[in-house]
Hints:
It contains 12 helices and 10 strands.
Amino acid sequence: MWLLMLTGFAEKLLYAFSLQLLTSLWKILIHLYSPLGTLLWFACGKRSSQPREKIEGKREEIAGDEDAAGVSVNPVSVNYHFTRQCNYKCGFCFHTAKTSFVLPLEEAKRGLLMLKEAGMEKINFSGGEPFLHDRGEFLGKLVKFCKKELKLPSVSIVSNGSLIRQKWFKDYGEYLDILAISCDSFDEQINALIGRGQGKKNHAENLWKLRRWCADYRVAFKINSVINRFNVEEDMNEQIQSLNPVRWKVFQCLIIEGENAGEDALREAERFVISDEDFEKFLDRHKAVSCLVPESNNKMKDSYLILDEYMRFLDCTKGRKDPSKSILDVGVEEAIKFSGFDEKCF
């Protein structure tokens, strides 16, 4: 009898040990083959029991709830046009010299600090021509403030390049991340027709000097081009690839009521306008340029946070520039509600 009891106990012990071993092995196999099982699950067409339409409808409902909640826009990337004055007369300019106002330096710094506290990570200084006011010193001090004091990850400038001197790079180059130079043509006759001609100075040749300085002072070099009726047939492949910018932004000529079109405008850009089809042809001709980034009219109007010389956000969505109140008066959160900024498009 004792023998039978011992035998039975041994069998149960062996069974338990075997079961535990098999269970451990099974867990290991499940762990190893679970990715494969997932793939097989989907490959066999296994889906959620809910119809696709119902799932998509739920997503739209959630998105609608978020929109209704009024999610605030964050000023992550801001374009500050602190001056409207310029030494060029580009016929399609959409931020013309309608005023000569420039904020005092300390007020401009106060506004930039407010933007940083509201979430700004990138600042781009533009104009007008930003190097024109105080021979670039005002600009240099703002660049230094944004990088050294505000510690912004990205500080950039858009300029026509004609007034930049090497001394500026020596004084402020270490605080600048990106310099974008506007160049619409490598043919000086076309530049003269556009309004970028400056007598004996060669706008295109100046690019090479600026390119070298950017390399010397470790500043990323970009090129911006506005495609219009006078340069739409031009082939810029060779020159752009030789200059090798980190980015070549190609803009479609844009009409803005009150700036370059209409009774109160200082420019008449209608004669520069090209069709969407012509713009696409230009892009196709330069498709081999890997750094090319196209900007159609729709993208330009909605995807930029533009701050004018009074630190007002400009809403360009209706084909004109409707200003908000200044952030210096009402704060960033209130002013940005009237910016027309499309965060999804950005």
